[in-house]
Design goal:
alpha/beta, Aminopeptidase, Glucose Oxidase, domain 1, eight-stranded mixed β-sheet, about 35% helix
Length: about 525
């Protein structure tokens, strides 16, 4: 079984890289399917003001639900936090007002997924950067991962990882530097590494890359940066492996971000033996330029919780034939930031489509469930729970929203429609073509890509378990510079002010036209 999964994964990767890319350009130039049978309306009056309100309310949660002045960490809508709970409440109330049959479904453990409610929870953390020549100490805006304490924590037992006056050394990049670093480690001096893998290297628009990665990126540019992502993730894992196994006196790794004001953020899904620390590029360059004069103090206070509370928010619109169900869904959680593009906007579009059906008293042919899935950023936990506990539900189509509609001029973005079924690609190709998406949006291209095992999103959970499901995931990326980023008191990064509202209108129309095609 495991060999088959690995084999399928390799095949899927090859398909995405080589076949998937060739499908995209055909949208503008060719005709597929029976276009006369597909009614298209590119001027549908979706309630964009309503979508705007949903997106703003979800984005503002990082400001409204946390008291940072009292020392509380603002975790956005991260899994199991009060921010995520507030988002669930907002969605539940809105679905109910739209007349949907609404359910707040708590995510629990299942036989297949026995740890859905388990996870490390960071209670507090902080980092102080010290300039030993000037005597200036500053508290640094950063993110620090949860730390593996080296033993199994009892349920809700607290653990504090704390270090003081650690020197900073550049991480080794070749064999000679590796030998020197190992020799230094044996002196017993405790330190942290400054890594040249800059917290999302694959997303940097114009990076200074090693020759092999630069060659791959140039060669594979028509299919964006999948090789860069694979290569960067490999380098990160390799670094983490030798830090965990050979550098006993290394107490952390600082990721050098390529952005000036923002740093990579996360939800602390994966703990580290050596904690990962992310800082913005301005701070990291300052350290790098005077590395011998800086030291750091930092701490992480955490617990292991086996009863994390999170929800799927479900709004059912009953159809004429209840034997089949179509899911129109999006994640509503986030990492530790406003989480607007990933994916307050996507959730707003789902709600906007639900409102369109409600306002126009549309009864679909089959049941539609409008769903906000919890815990996507920590491994699609809500989708895993739903799939495992709704086995008797005949789900035929999934229209999944992920990160969409962020404004970015350089480099321009691509809206990827990741589809698992070739027949479904041919079915929706005319709808995509007639949307005139690229022309109407102006700074965003559109591509359809074949992903047989589903997208790296909630829909993939269903596709890999149910061969009959046809899915499309809307995911704008490659390279979206502000992906998972936070900074300047949560006002920079993936934030509300960077939404392209013309793109929201056009994307909403496209999603609605596809939804109508499979539901009416």
């Amino acid at each position: 079984m495991k060999k088959n999964i690995v084999k399928k994964g390799i095949i899927t990767g090859v398909i995405i890289l080589f076949i998937g890319a060739s499908l995209g350009p055909s949208i503008a130039g060719n005709s597929f399917g029976n276009e006369k049978n597909i009614p298209i309306n590119n001027e549908i009056e979706l309630d964009v003001d309503y979508i705007y309100s949903i997106v703003q309310n979800l984005s503002d949660i990082i400001f409204t639900e946390y008291n940072e002045s009292a020392g509380e960490i603002a975790k956005g809508r991260s899994f199991g936090t009060k921010g995520e709970h507030k988002a669930a409440q907002i969605l539940y109330e809105n679905m109910t007002m739209l007349g949907l049959i609404t359910t707040l479904e708590q995510i629990n453990n299942t036989e297949k997924y026995p740890t859905l409610t388990h996870g490390y929870v960071v209670l507090d953390y902080g980092l102080t950067l010290k300039n030993n020549s000037s005597g200036i100490n500053e508290s640094v805006d950063c993110w620090i991962s949860a730390v593996e304490p080296g033993r199994q924590l009892a349920h809700e037992e607290t653990f504090t990882f704390e270090e003081h006056d650690l020197k900073i050394r550049r991480i080794p990049k070749n064999f000679k530097e590796l030998k020197e670093a190992l020799a230094y480690d044996k002196t017993g001096e405790e330190y942290v590494f400054l890594s040249d893998i800059r917290g999302g290297l694959c997303r940097e628009p114009n990076p200074t890359l090693p020759w092999d990665l630069a060659l791959m990126r140039k060669f594979f540019y028509p299919i964006r940066v999948f090789p860069s992502i694979v290569y960067t993730n490999f380098r990160r894992k390799l670094e983490q492996w030798y830090l965990d196994n050979f550098f006993n006196n290394c107490k952390g790794k600082i990721a050098f971000d390529f952005t000036n004001d923002t740093h990579d953020a996360s939800s602390n899904n994966n703990v580290k033996l050596v904690p990962a620390i992310t800082m913005n590029g301005t701070i990291c360059r300052k350290i790098d330029n005077d590395i011998d004069n800086y030291t750091v103090d930092f701490f992480v206070n955490e617990t292991y919780n086996k009863s994390i509370v999170s929800y799927n928010v479900i709004g059912l619109l009953e159809g004429k034939d209840p034997s089949k169900t179509i899911l129109v869904d999006c994640l509503y959680d986030s990492v530790w930031c406003q989480g607007t593009g990933d994916s307050g906007v996507g959730m707003g579009i789902v709600m906007g489509i639900a409102k369109y059906y409600s306002d126009n008293n549309i009864t679909p042919k089959y049941n539609i469930k409008f769903i906000g899935f919890g815990g996507e950023e920590t491994g699609c936990r809500g989708a895993k729970y739903y799939e495992a506990t709704h086995k008797d539900e005949n789900i035929t189509y999934i229209i999944d929203m992920n990160q969409v509609c962020s404004s970015q001029e350089d480099p321009p973005l691509t809206l990827n429609l990741l589809v698992n079924n070739l027949g479904f690609i041919l079915d929706i190709m005319p709808i995509v073509k007639k949307s005139n998406y690229a022309e109407r949006v102006g700074n965003t291209d559109i591509k359809i890509r074949w992903c047989p095992l589903g997208a790296p999103s909630d829909d993939g959970v269903f596709v890999r378990e149910r061969s009959e499901v046809k899915s499309v995931c809307f995911l704008e990326d490659f390279p979206w510079v502000m992906h998972h980023r936070d900074g300047v008191n949560h006002t920079e990064g993936d934030v509300f002010k960077h939404v392209d509202w013309n793109e929201v209108k056009v994307t909403s129309e496209l999603v609605l036209n596809i939804t109508k095609h499979v539901t009416l």
